Amino acid sequence: MTQKSMMESVKEEIVSAIKGTGDIVNAVVNTVAGTLTNTIKSSGAVTASLIGALSDTARASIHGAAQVGGDIGAAAKGVIIGALRGTKDTSAEALDTIKATAGGVVRGAAEVAGNLGTAAKGAIQGALSGAKEMGLDVVDATSAAASGALTATSEIIKEASKTGASVIQASSDVVRVAIQGIVEVGGDVGSGAKGIILGALKGTKQSSTEALETISTTAGAVVKGTSELAGDVATAAKGAVEGAIAGAKELSMDVAEAASAAATGAVKAAGEIGSGVAEQVRKAVTGTIAGVKVVLKEPFKK
User: Of 91, 208, 221, 249, which is most buried, counting CB atoms within 10 Å of its CB?
Assistant: First the structure.
């Protein structure tokens, strides 16, 4: 089956299923899971071809939901769950599945002029649900979804010949809405924030200075997104610092600098919300976290 015919087939199935049941999430879950199961059985899909199938299936699903006026966020959630069920993998490859599918979801949203943040939010909610179902680590699953979504967002903005500032703003908007998705489903906002920061670092693969800016900006977006839904801002901020520390270790960055960047971004964003929130966040992100002494600094500049 060619790429075009597979995408058209998935899109048509999604449209038919949604019209038939009105249940977007389950319609997408079942269609995506069935498509991927059949793809693997018929082709013995290796990693490279499976990643392509995941992305194409995700894009087609979003196109189908959009065609019938369905909720793109709900469709995105269903795509991630369906992809995990269809591949039936509980190993590290499941994280690659989440990442590729989340990227496809965001690209699909862009192609139908949908909101990228809404797509990313649904993808992260799907990753949380799928992680629990498949026995995956929730932080790792969140990180994979955030990485895929933010990588796709960055590529989409750059392809539109936008500036670096536009990429940062778009990514911040996606992060803000993504953390709200975790709050909405009653997820652990600390673990979610940690996963999002990890995902941002893995997805951007920037130089050291740019990575510190990404950490600071992402931590600020996490705080603002949590605050907008009256979530636990202090816990989210601390989770962001923990994510920066874990990411720095994994990417061989200066751990203290990364922790400081996250803490500084979180406190700055909290200060824009209110002095009381700023004090809560300041207390949460200073001192020793995950064995690292965290010190606040001025915002990082190039």
Answer: 221
Domain membership flag for residue 110: yes
Burial code of 253-290, b = ≥16 C-beta within 10 A, e = fewer?
bebebbbbbbbbbbbbbbbebeeebbebbbebbbeebb
Per-run averaged pLDDT (10 residues), the chain, 302 residues? 72 92 92 88 65 91 95 96 86 87 96 93 95 93 94 87 73 92 92 93 71 92 95 96 94 94 97 94 96 82 41
111 with 208, same domain: the answer is no
Rounded-to-integer distance, Cα 134 and Cα 5, Å: 30
Could you tell me if residue 269 is left (phi over 0), alpha (psi between -120 and 50 degrees) or otherwise beta?
alpha
Q: Which of 238, 233, 215 lies closest to 270, judged by CA?
A: 233
Backbone conformation region of residue 69, classed left if phi is above 0, alpha if psi is from -120 to 50, else beta: left
pTM: 0.87
Query: Which residues partner with 288 through β-bridges?
Result: 293
Q: Residue 55 is part of which domain span?
A: 1-158
> The tokens of 78 are what?
């269903």
